[in-house]
Design brief:
Two copies of one chain form a homodimer. With 424 residues, chain A is of the alpha/beta class. The first copy, chain A, has 16 helices and 17 strands. Mean pLDDT of chain A is 91; it is low at 419-424. At the A-B interface, α2, β2, α3, α8 and β10 of A face α1, α2, β2, α3 and α6 of B. β14 (299-305) of chain A pairs antiparallel with β14 of chain B.
């Protein structure tokens, strides 16, 4: 089944609010095998709404109209729907009783505007809005279903979940779909595409691949559509298993997992603890780790050492090393990692030192230069990276890269300890 | 001038991402007197994109197309544009040099996909994308302007701000506009509206006021539209000067300033340094502070003490205090602040200890309970807050609230020291 979402209201078009409703509806429909072909936001304006309805009706089986149903006079949706469906507004007694009850509970008197909310187009099926006063409306015209619901998020959600989706399921209007997103880190999008080109070209026709890059990672989303959900899942999982053979080192997780969650899981398996010493990342690694619920089980704490004195006095970095090699150096990163590991009595430690920018760079060490060290009980790994000129992105990329290095080291060491448990 | 935004890409249509780009563009355009008539999200699909372009061209003077310009093969926008504008892709040497430079800085070799990003439709004007590799493109056809830009938010923002808006202004397609946003904190929106009602009613007709609340502050945006930008600026500044007389304590900054930047400015005036000890905020305060360029001038560092042992061993909190009052207590917050101030040899210190959730709450100390302490050379201020159940929001709100308390204390102490320099 194909659908379009039409949102009515000026707030979105002047950028006053972000249209989160459409994303929510799209996600819910997608999970139910309904493909959203288009999302259209239009003004509270008669001709514009009619045009959007006409264009949508040509293309899809289902049109979901949100917004424009409040009691105030800028809301002209209902009258426009009457014209489009060639009908008139009539009084709907059950809706009026519902509105009356809600107002009496709040000890507020009904006014004309509230009474008018009980007027509905004569040829619609009323969708009971338990969450608010404006009813939902269901129309059918030339094999297209139209539903009109309020834009208030919790009312919209109620009507989609408890009225629209059950009615569609009842009518047998859904297809099976299965999605899975593979999370990769450390390989830029274009290089990744080259590495997996043969695999991508050999994907079954009913699996679609999408590249979704963000500053933290490149996500690969596989979507399969068909009749039988469990068959689709098997199909997608089979392709992901093949992908894991091609880029085993780049994949760190799936769907909505974060790198910190994945690391948390690995550390908890073996009862290991992490500590962090941050210079250029300034607390962001610590924030990413502690964003994971229950992170105290695998995280001891961190030191943000924003001055050389703290690197020396708290982390125990030798002042001579700083003066000889500079604070942004392999040697200092290494000493920071070893220092914080010991200070916070941990099994693993991450350290970062670099030039986040926008100023502070030199020819030898330009803005974006970052040394990352990861220490375990066995060794210290240190590597230099040169990111870009943007402070915020340098902080994010340094942090994510540091966590990725930690993940790889933990994986390898746990693999060596327990070779048959974790396959890399 | 009327405009439509067309976003290309399946991520929005399957609800995987919320379309924040369109809201941002709509807001920027609105501030520049460009009316957005419609926002349309379509698939990465040739016919669908062409249809959206045709429909838009009938209605508006400017079509902004975002997304679909990545190097991978799900991106068909450029070829579709070529067909629509009846042209072909040609090699654009300056874009290629720019891509080559970006990659060489990262020490990554160019592949064919990267090279192809330097191909642009022959009849477009290339908009230089300093923030990324995919260039923006500007077309004109039958009195309608079309611009195509990447969907990556910071690249999109760069191109709108530094290429598209200046070009429109140059062509006389936008009006002179001046806007300034007043950042307030500590007074809820409805109370604020009451306090400034008379001022608001007396605003000149060509100044528009918008309330932009978010969880931690209420922003007041003044927009003036007219012919002469410097006159508009004077007009707005005059009104803001009046506003500052009415709510002097609530205003903490202007436009895009952050609380951390404002604090940084205050601390730098007097050459003071800050230290932070975080438990429930887990490094987020440190991250907010170090997000400010040049923060090493006023920030020494922080300790994330995620275990009681670290609170005791590093911050010097008395173990007896923890066992008597619990880690989430007034006493521990106070000791943490004093401890980190001394340890990191600072003038001011913030400490947080609380239950971020989602688990770990008790009847006496429910999830969301947070103690915040701010220590100066003169005293320690400690206060309990009870936020909500959401871990992420609890971390953010605790952090912002802690910074706000620090700002007030620094202001008062500096006012007492130098009464004629800083007026509160």
């Amino acid at each position: 089944m194909k659908a379009e979402i039409i949102t009515i209201g000026d707030e979105i078009l002047i950028g006053q609010i972000v249209d989160t409703n459409s994303a929510w509806i799209a996600d819910q429909f997608n999970l139910n095998g309904i493909e959203i072909c288009q999302i259209t936001s239009v003004h509270d304006e008669h001709n514009h709404i009619v045009e959007a309805l006409r264009n949508a009706a040509k293309k899809v089986d289902l049109v979901v109209i949100t917004g424009g149903l409040g009691p105030t006079k800028d809301d002209i949706t209902k009258n426009t729907l009457c014209e489009y469906f060639n009908t008139k507004l009539v009084f709907h007694a059950p809706t009026f009783d519902h509105i009356k009850n809600r107002f009496s509970k709040l000890s507020i008197d009904l006014n004309k505007l509230n009474r008018d909310q009980a007027l509905v187009p004569e040829n619609c099926t009323v969708l009971f809005n338990k969450a608010g006063t404006a009813p939902g409306m269901w129309f059918e015209k030339n094999d297209t279903i139209f539903v009109s619901i309020p834009g208030v998020p919790f009312e919209m959600k109620y009507l989609v979940e408890y009225e629209i989706l059950p009615k569609l399921l009842e009518k047998g209007q859904t297809k099976a779909i299965y999605h899975k997103t593979v999370l990769t880190q450390g390989v830029p999008e274009s290089m990744l595409a080259e590495k997996i080109e043969d695999w991508e070209n050999a994907l079954p026709k009913n699996i679609k691949l999408a590249y979704l890059p963000n500053p933290m990672s490149v996500r690969l989303r596989l979507s399969a559509m068909g009749e039988d959900k469990s068959l689709l899942r098997d199909l997608v999982e089979e392709q992901i298993a093949k992908l894991e053979q091609i880029i085993p080192e780049s994949i760190f997780g799936f769907d909505k997992e974060t790198m910190a969650e994945v690391i948390g899981g690995l550390l908890k398996i073996n009862g290991k603890k992490l500590a962090v010493a941050e210079s250029c990342t300034g607390g962001y690694i610590s924030h990413l780790v502690t964003s994971v619920p229950g992170s105290s089980e695998f995280f001891n704490g961190s030191i943000t050492a924003y001055s050389n004195k703290i690197k020396e006095n708290i982390l125990g970095v030798d002042a001579k090393i700083i003066s000889e090699f500079g604070a942004v150096s392999e040697q200092v990163a290494k000493e920071m990692a070893l220092g914080v590991k010991q200070l916070l009595n941990s099994d693993y430690a991450i350290a970062t030192t670099g030039i986040a920018g926008p100023t502070g760079g030199t020819d030898e060490k330009p803005v974006g230069t970052v040394w990352i060290a990861v220490a375990s009980k066995k060794k210290v790994f240190v590597k230099k990276f040169v990111f870009g000129n943007n402070r915020e992105r340098n902080i994010i990329r340094s942090s994510q890269t540091a966590l990725q290095i930690l993940r790889r080291i933990v994986l390898v060491e746990q693999k060596n300890n327990r070779p048959k448990v974790i396959e890399e």
